Amino acid sequence: MTMKNIIKRAVWVVVLLAVTLLASCNDENYLKFDLSQTGIYFTKDTLNYSFSVTPVEIKTHTYNIPVKIMGGVSKTKRPLGYYIDSDSTTAEENVHFSIGEACVLPDSIMGYIPVTIYRDKLEGSHSTGYTQYKLCVRLVQNDHFTPTLDSLHQVRVFRFDNSVNQPEWYNAHGEKVWQKKYLGEWHPLKFIKMVEYFHAVKDIQPETYKAMVKLYGENLEHIEFGDPYQYRTVFIKYIYTPMYNYFNDPANRDYILSEFPDFPFDFPDPKSV
Predict the structure, then answer these.
(1) Cα–Cα distance, 270 to 235 (Å, whole number)
(2) CA 137 to CA 158: how far, in whole Å?
(3) Is the CB of residue 159 less than 8 Å from the CB of residue 63?
(4) pLDDT (0 to 100) of residue 9
(5) C-beta of residue 132 within 8 angstroms of C-beta of residue 161
(6) DSSP readout, 104-126?
(7) Is 103:111 a contact under the CB 8 Å cutoff?
(8) Strand 47-50 to strand 133-140: parallel, antiparallel, or no bridges (unpaired)?
(9) At 61, phi and psi to the nearest 5?
(10) Which of 137, 149, 171, 268 has its CA at a distance of 20 to 30 angstroms from the CA of residue 28?
């Protein structure tokens, strides 16, 4: 046998040993995975919510902070352990938020910590600035689950507010614009109602709505030059006119002022624009 053949055989022996060792390690790890183990961890790094353009009549929102388990599922709902890190939390429980039943669902590896936010308790306005609140939650061991990650990754910060910011509409010079000709002065309530009536077009002209969403975004994020000229007729009929009627209806005035004391009531009549 030549030296070349000896080297080839030696290499093959090493490769076979390595493959066998790797397979045995994998088998061993697989055998060590016990379905009765119930590790738990967060599945999202970034947790944010803003009421933003949600209709003003909606006063609460429940945000489910998602978790996942490593181990077997159960036929019953199982509570998970957590606590609020008060040192890193700026929101006040039962004032700005409350937490419901935190659990892992039956026959599932998924669970959640449900946080209900109270819109009317969130401070700030477009003129004074919006307050962003923080809720810091840490997973802890209980009778059912044990956090699987290191201490740093067992914590998540949920940030929330009631901000309504002027949309990112720009003119040809890259300057932010708001079409006063059709909308009057900028105010958050106008944009909230604009998006609300835009969504209502879905039930009136579904195909047109689908095309507009593709062009402008689901919440009108991408209106070029701030002017939806491609569908201006649709906007005047189904969005601007209902907005004008809403803002000029005396029955709505007290409610509008109770929610937005600085509302200007200057929405132009679409028929005269």
Answers:
(1) 10
(2) 8
(3) no
(4) 56
(5) yes
(6) EPTT-SEEEEEEEEEGGG--EET
(7) yes
(8) unpaired
(9) -150, 135
(10) 149
Reported confidence tier of residue 115, pLDDT bands at 50, 70, 90: very high
Taking only Cα atoms into account, the Rg of the chain, rounded to an integer number of angstroms, comes to 28
Say whether pLDDT at 265 is over 70: yes
What is the amino acid identity at position 91?
A: A
pLDDT for residue 1: 53
Contact 246, 252 (CB under 8 A): yes
Tokens representing 128 are 């004074």
SS (H, E, C) 218-239: CCCCCCHHHCCHHHHHHHHHHH
Structure token digits, residue 247: 């803002």
Alpha-carbon distance of 79 to 83, in angstroms, equals 13
Residues 161 and 122 sit within 8 Å (Cβ to Cβ):
yes
Task: Tell me if the domain spanning 39-161 has CATH number 2.60.40.1740.
Answer: yes
Whole-structure pTM value: 0.78
Question: 84-93 long-range CB contacts below 8 Å, 24 or more apart?
Answer: 84/135, 84/136, 84/137, 84/138, 85/136, 85/137, 85/138, 85/155, 87/136, 88/134, 88/136, 88/157, 89/134, 89/135, 89/136, 90/133, 90/134, 91/133, 91/134, 91/135, 91/160
Task: Judge contact between 28 and 4, C-beta under 8 A.
Answer: no
On the 0-12 / 13-18 / 19+ scale of CB atoms within 10 A, 260 is middle
Asked if 145 contacts 104 with a C-beta cutoff of 8 angstroms, the reply is yes
All structural domains of the chain with their residue ranges: 39-161, 180-272
Distance, in Å, from the CA atom of 179 to the CA atom of 130, rounded to the nearest integer, reads 24
